[in-house]
Amino acid sequence: MEQKGILYRNKYLILCNPAPIFKNHFTIVALRHDPQEIATSINGLLDLGADLSGYAVFYNGPACGASAPDHLHFQAIPKNSLPFFLEFKKLLPVKNKLSVRYSRWKDFDRSVILLESQSTDELTKQFLDLYRVMQRILKTNKEPLVNVLCDYSGNRWQLAVFLRQKHRPNAYFAKGKDRIFISPGAVDMAGFVITPLLDNYNHLDYNAIREIYREVSLPENVMNSIIKEIVKGN
């Protein structure tokens, strides 16, 4: 039977995820065959965040967990499913820029920046500024490795940008019992780690997961360089 979907803003189709992680798990697919690219689709992510009340909407970069790396799509899951939202209490403000507040986490095992605003226009502008700073620091013309998580509540958007240096930890490519079959996407980076192998589930612990986070995230010195550029920018 052909799957039915909900047309969204004449640009996307909201579908049930074919391999759901959560009870209510949706994939939002672009009608056009556009590339998986956040710089040109950030407005769609923000719109979805506001329209899907109670859901966190996220973007996986094409080399950071995207299930279809060559076709634009987002995913939406119940917001209360992600432990990461509890971490918002530990924010360290970086800068208020126009109507956007930048924050980061101190002594955290992931490189992540939070942007908050009540204005989609200003939030889009500042996100794209951050995107360009990342390209400059990382010396690339391609999309930096990112997972982006969007939440909307209290007439305010929160955009968590996870900054990555690689897709998978070294242990993913190991042989035999040393292999850890974890390929972190946005859900994993937000604290809900998927372990397809039962043996991995039985043997992984808090410290091992934190080490995976550190390995796939940008090093602290690079993260600090990006923050420095943001702070000194206009």
Question: What's a concise summary of this model?
Answer:
By secondary structure, this protein is α+β, with helices and mostly antiparallel strands. It has helices at 42-51, 120-138, 186-189, 198-203, 206-216, 220-232, and strands spanning 6-8, 12-16, 26-30, 55-60, 73-78, 91-97, 100-105, 112-117, 146-153, 156-163. The longest helix is centred in the middle third of the chain and has 19 residues, at 120-138.
Describe the protein.
The protein has 234 residues and is of the alpha+beta class. The chain has one domain (1-234): HIT family, subunit A (2-Layer Sandwich), CATH 3.30.428. 27% of the residues lie in helices and 26% in strands. The chain has helices at 42-51, 120-138, 186-189, 198-203, 206-216, 220-232, and strands at residues 6-8, 12-16, 26-30, 55-60, 73-78, 91-97, 100-105, 112-117, 146-153, 156-163. The chain has a ten-stranded antiparallel beta sheet. A hairpin with a 2-residue loop joins β9 and β10 (156-163). α2 crosses α6 (220-232). The protein is globular. The chain starts with 5 loop residues before the first strand and ends with a helix. The mean pLDDT is 90.
